[in-house]
Amino acid sequence: MTRLFATLLGGLLLILATPALAAPAVKEGDVVIRDFRFQSGENLPELRLHYRTLGEPRRDASGRVVNAVMILHGTGGSGAQFLRPQFADVLFRPGGLLDPAKYYIILPDGIGHGGSSKPSDGLRARFPAYDYDDMVEAQRRLLVDGLKVDRLRLILGTSMGCMHAFVWGETHPDFADALMPLACLPTEIAGRNRVWRKLAMDGIRSDPAWMDGDYTQQPMQGLRTAQSLLMLAGGAPMPLQRDLASREAADGYVNRGMAAALPQLDANDLWFQINASRTYDPSAGLERITVPVMWINSADDFINPPELGLAQTFAPRIRRGTYLLLPNIPEGKGHGTHTWAVFWQDRLAALLEDSEAR
Questions:
Q1: Where a domain ends, among 238, 273, 308?
Q2: Fewest CB atoms within 10 Å of the CB: 127, 210, 307, 314?
Q3: Domain span at residue 153?
Q4: Are residues 90 and 114 both part of a single domain?
Q5: What is the pTM of this model?
Q6: Tell me, what's the pLDDT at 345?
């Protein structure tokens, strides 16, 4: 553990001391899928999927793209989050593990998120009740129909994207050469994980200003309840105790966090984003995953606490899987460790090497 701590700390100090790099060139676009049918039986005549790409596709003699990498965001996020320094400056830099000079990097916005079709576009609470299976199928259609990519070098997913990676591995076992799920468990969302989600969802819809989703102003009481739970679930205990060592500091942190987050939220969008996890449960099909998997959680993750022992139960069933639990350290980022690449980039390097010959 001491050796791993030293490696993590050294890497963190290095990235903090490195001057900011020029942002890699990013292209943005939309793919429209006609008559998309959801698992619920509902339909959208047009489903818009927004995406960002870095680098250029490289094709083999048959015209097949051979260097595509897809990176999947978490609940409430978008592909844009991977352009932040803690991710991009580590992985997308020249010579980095996912250097855009070598890879064609695809950053989709999931259904209900970012620039993709979502309730706040106009349907509000009448938007189709999408789930993770729908989101994965839409990602596949984006790749195959929109970007003409039918093979991925890697799927890397964070939080919700981590869960999507497990769904991908089971439903399309030959699509990607390797999977790197970060910060999730491959099982039904139950226990405390379901409790905080239901509390957040109920908080939104129990607000008198909700008006069955046809509100004229955001139901702020409900959004405050939901955002409070999101802040708590995403926090890392050791750095919070260190940095918020007084009542005044803790209260200021909450006030600043609320002031920054609330204006960005839409109650319908957030409710649907959280609700999408309701049918997730890949636990029965883990043996169907045949490619190398580097699965990483962190010990300071409120959402996926290691003391449940679930990872130790599921990991042996992934035939080419490696499971790593990052330690609880003062420099940790809690659930958000998934987007601080300095903590796990060495494991990504090992995964890319292990899957190179596939």
A1: 273
A2: 307
A3: 2-191+283-354
A4: yes
A5: 0.93
A6: 98
Residue 278 belongs to a domain: no
Closest CA to 77 of 351, 349, 335: 335
Is 16 part of any domain? yes
Domain boundary at 217, 250, 273, which? 273
From the number of C-beta atoms within 10 Å of its C-beta (0-12, 13-18, 19+), residue 91 rates as buried
Q: What is the pLDDT of residues 220-262, one digit of tens each?
A: 999 999 999 999 999 999 999 999 999 999 999 999 999 999 9
Q: Are 234 and 219 in contact (CB under 8 A)?
A: no
Q: Is residue 126 part of a domain?
A: yes
SS (H, E, C) 232-284: HHHCCHHHHHHHCCCHHHHHHHHHHHHHHHHHHCCHHHHHHHHHHHHHCCCHH
Tell me: do 265 and 289 sit in the same domain: no
Same domain, 116 and 198: no
First to last CA, the chain: 32
Give the residue among 100, 120, 107 at the shortest CA–CA distance from 50: 107
pLDDT of residue 241: 94
Structure tokens at 155: 């799927």
155's CB contacts (< 8 A; 6+ apart) are 69, 70, 71, 72, 164, 165, 168, 169, 176, 178, 179, 180
Hey, what are 127's tokens? Answer: 């938007």
CA separation for the pair 164, 178 (Å, rounded): 14
Residue 169 and residue 164: Cα distance in Å, rounded? 9
| Same domain flag for 345 and 322 | yes
Q: What is the pLDDT of residue 356?
A: 85
Q: Alpha-carbon distance 230 to 228, whole Å?
A: 5
- Locate tokens 């460790």: which residue? 337
User: CATH code at 318?
Assistant: 3.40.50.1820
Residues of the chain with pLDDT under 50: 1-2, 5, 7, 9, 12-17, 19
Q: What is the DSSP string of 149-189?
A: ---BSEEEEETHHHHHHHHHHHHSTTTBS-EEEES--SS--
Question: Are residue 185 and residue 293 in the same domain, yes or no?
Answer: yes
